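re: ur question from earlier - yeah i can do the single chain one, its not a big deal. heres the input i used so u can compare w yours
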Amino acid sequence: MQSNALVVNDLTKRYPDFVLDKVSFSVPCGTIVGLIGENGAGKSTTINAVLGMISRDSGSIELFGEADTQSNDSIRNQIGVVFDGNNYPDVLSAQKLNRVLREIYRTWDERKFFDLLKKMSLPADKKIKEFSKGMQMKLSIAAALSHNSRLLILDEATSGLDPVVRDDILDMFLEFVQDESHSILVSSHITSDLEKVADYIVFIHKGKVVFCKSKDELRYKYGIIRCGAAQFDAIDNEEAIAYRKQDYEWEVLVADRDQARRKYPKAVIDPASIDEIMLLYVKGESK
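and the output i got, formated as tokens:
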């Protein structure tokens, strides 16, 4: 079995006011990879380059073991894409959308599409413009799953949705990757969603990859030391990934909180959420 659905290596794209700088990461088969970063960090640029929607200045992109496949329709048909907002003309109904998409995708599975509509309680004859945002997103995901996709690429697909709809969609993602030939790359600023479903996290900041790590390493190993000035001065510079001064304490991000507890028994050391890790990398300083 192919070990990676997607490999991005040294992807570079230059604009007058922004550079996507040698971005590298992979999406192993059977996994969900979360792409995080502040607005303007380069997440959408990366996704657009992977999809061949923009040209790249340098670097390589490999899909399902094949390199540089922008013009390979058989490979592209195996990718389901969902963007934030309505992905299809809102004058269509789901029924009419089915007729359009079966002409576009050679692998379109009409029965699966209508089964998914039923499962998601989506009306087939109602115009998309009459759908709520959550219904529109579910329709887009149903379409993405109905042409035998092996890789889903989602750009802020859960943005602006209520918690119940988001939870339904996250469950669909988890169900999709139960098949180990399936994979998902999902860009999201809602890090709590990624804490629930992602296997790996790729953090992009100012066009560069800060880290690619397993979610479990971030959740179960990283920590935040909260301490006063005297304790802060005693912390080994090599152990402090980033720090920042709050009103009454210092916050110090460390990669091994158990080790830090043994070394600094008097300090308060908390688990770090992905949100907190990202904030300290972006807003913190290095010792």
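The mean pLDDT is 92. not sure if urs matches, ping me
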